[in-house]
# Entry
Amino acid sequence: MPAIAPQPVQITCPNCRTSFRTGIYSLVDAGEQPELKQALLAGQLNLAICPNCGVASALGAPLVYHDAAKQLCFVYFPQELRARPEEQERFVGDVTNFLIKSLPADAPRGYLLKPRRFISQASLIEAIFESDGISKEMLDAQRQRVALIAEFAQAMEDEPELARLAEQHRAALDYEFFATLTAFADANAQQGRMDGATMLAQLRDRLAALAGVDLPDEADGFADGVDGGVDANYEAELAQTVERLV
Ligand SMILES: [Zn+2]
# Structure
């Protein structure tokens, strides 16, 4: 199936008024372009980064999410677009016609006729995670771990504060927490962010000492217990958090 190229648009940065070109994606096909799915799940799709000041702005564009293997077709129409129903129908019709034409003749297509609608990107992302077997509860728990890691990371230079936070959040310092921290350190190292990787590894060791937790040897595949889907998608988020801190 041919991929739909992003549509070029000219936008003005809301922060510094710099005008620049970027691309809007209107179709994410999970089978054909898994990297777009990852970007969508990480909240990075249709997000324009100003080349002058670095401020990100959401492009607020309608989007079709398609996964032929799972027979899923989701449509996200941002509420703030206030698009008329007939405009929405035309957009959905154009994209689904494209999909139907590009599917093999014997492929199921009934699901394309009644795509599920979403008015917020957050609910679309949750539904995609759910189709991958990751529930909202698991996502929320992972978000809390990410927030907690960021909170600990900020207290790295302040030993008494770090000890106080470790005491306060003692119950959260469980196997999944340390596995997440390890996965983030590994992800930073793999992406060449050695400062972040070192900082996260130090944080993990200090928290383990403070909490009196014996960490298993990394050679035993310690991080494998965390669902690959979740930590992959939060890599970007945490990497950004870490970059602000180091
Ligand atoms: Zn700017």
Observations:
- Helices lie at 34-41, 85-102, 121-131, 136-154, 159-168, 175-190, 194-211, 228-245.
- The pocket of zinc ion is lined by residues 13, 15-16, 18, 50, 52-53, 55 (CB under 6 Å).
- Residues 219-233 have pLDDT under 50 and may be disordered.
- Residues 126 and 136 are 6 Å apart (CA to CA).
